[in-house]
Amino acid sequence: MDTPIVLPWWRRRRTLVSAGVGAAVLAAAGLGAMALGGVKSSVRVPAQNVTLASVQPGVFHDFVALRATAQPKDVIYLDALEGGQVREVLAQAGDMVKAGQPLLTFRNTELELDVLDREGRLVESITQLQTYEKQLEDARVANEKAEAQIQYDITRLQRTAERRDSLVSKGFISKDLFEQVHDELDHNRKLLPLQTAANAEQDALRHRQIPQIQNELSTLQESLRVTRGKLDSLTVRAPVAGRLTDMDIKVGEIRNRGQRLGQIVADTGFKLQAQIDEFYLERVKPGETGSVTIEDRDVPVRVTRVDPQVKNATFQVDLAFDGAMPRGLLPGQALEGRLTLGGDRPALVLPAGAFLERSGGDWVMVVDASGTHADRRRVRLGRRSAEQVEVLAGLKAGERVITSDYNGFEKVDRVVLAK
After folding, report:
1. May I ask the CATH class of domain 75-108+234-265?
2. 70-99 per-position pLDDT tens digit
3. Is 70 within 8 Å of 335 (Cβ atoms)?
4. Backbone phi and psi for residue 299, each to the nearest 5 degrees, phi listed first
């Protein structure tokens, strides 16, 4: 006889269904609690690996740190105007040179032949113009002589005619001689206005041509001077007084036209160049003042130029010394200092740190009272300096903030500080 199988209560269908419903309810409740309470993504770091700082009321010192380098105010580059083979080196890098002092000479046979050819053609053109100018002057003199001769002949013939008029009436001379004088006198009287008109026309033409000839002669003379100056350019001279640098040239070298030969650092003093974080681009203006430290003393400086082009997250400024130029500066010497951007004023301040680079000052990790963890919080920061950050909203005095690098914190809401 078969025995009926009786299932345990925990395997019965009704029990399983009830258990499933209960699990679903618990899961839904857990999800709801998580939704209401918010899920915080977190990362665990050793407490000794982070730097903490407190928000405190104080005075905000509005400045930006400077690391400037001393640069000569004026650097004059020396280039080969014509080039050629180096014939003689007359100065070396490091020498102090005077304005006009020869530094080196070139040999350039092709240039010398070209200059001689051009010079010959220019001299020929100048000679032709001068010859033509002389011809115009000779023609003027000849015309004036011709007019003067006609006037002289008229006067002479008129006197002769007057004498013969009285003689012919008395029968002392023949009528042919009388008529000959009057014919010559009439002829010269007709020639005089023709000669005068021709002279006037020639003078007008000469007055138009002489200035043109003079201008062409001046142009040719300047071209001749420039052509001869090409040979002078084979001798490289110092354009200003100063120290010769970056010139390493040996006799016999070939240097092409336009090639850099060296440079002269003029004895006009130094300026400072500094790279500043792009965050301060809108605040740094020409005329801003500051100071740099030279031999343990602060030397005042001011901004003279701001280059707005940003490279590698920085922009460049030029600064000049206020007052006497410090002695002993060397090109490329590094100087530390600060640039004042505004006056000091009371504020809620937080020490500056590496956290600003990754957070951009939009959020910080605030440590709770127990010191076991730090939570992300939105904040509003104001002015910044190399040492301080002005807190405008989001933090209270006495709260502690992680100020070290936020690498790895970008996508988490909580940092657990492990002991």
Report:
1. mainly beta
2. 988 888 999 998 889 999 999 998 899 999
3. yes
4. -110, 125
Percent of the chain with pLDDT over 90: 29
Please list the alpha-helical segments (H only) found in 343-412: 355-359
Q: Kindly report the number of other CB atoms within 10 A of residue 59's CB atom.
A: 11
CA–CA distance, 319 with 287 (Å, rounded to integer) = 9
pLDDT reading at 49 higher than 70 = yes
Model confidence over 341-364: pLDDT tens digits?
Answer: 877 788 898 988 888 888 888 999
Q: What would the two tokens of residue 180 be?
A: 């000959």
418 SS3 class: strand
Amino acid at 300: P
Give the Cβ contact number of residue 111 at 10 Å.
18
End-to-end alpha carbon distance in the chain? 72
Rounded Cα distance between 327 and 269, Å, is: 10
Tokens 């950050």 belong to which residue? 389
The predicted-structure confidence for 13-40, as pLDDT tens digits, reads as follows 555 555 555 555 455 544 444 444 445 6
Q: What H or E segment, with its residue span, contains residue 56?
A: strand 56-60
| CATH architecture under which domain 64-73+269-340 falls | Beta Barrel (2.40)
The CATH class that applies to domain 39-62+345-418 reads mainly beta
Angstrom CA distances, 268 to 73, 179, 388, 398, stand at: 6, 93, 38, 53
- Two tokens at 301? 């400086």
For Cα atoms 134, 139, 140, give the angle at the middle one, nearest 5 degrees.
95
Question: Per-domain residue ranges for the chain?
Answer: 39-62+345-418, 64-73+269-340, 75-108+234-265, 109-232
Beta pairing class for 42-46 and 414-418: parallel
Torsion over CA: 133, 135, 137, 140 (sign): negative
Average pLDDT over residues 40-59: 88
Phi/psi for 239 (5° steps) reads: -70, -25
Q: For residue 41, how far is the Cα from the chain centroid? A: 52
Tokens, residue 390: 């002005």
The tokens describing 226, both together, are 């420039």
Element (H, E) at 209: helix 175-232
Measure CA 263 to chain center: 18
The answer for residues whose C-beta is within 8 angstroms of residue 137's C-beta and 6 or more apart is 206
pLDDT in the model for residue 148: 92
Q: What is the rounded distance in angstroms from the CA atom of residue 132 to the CA atom of residue 220?
A: 15
Whether 146 and 196 have beta carbons less than 8 Å apart is answered as no
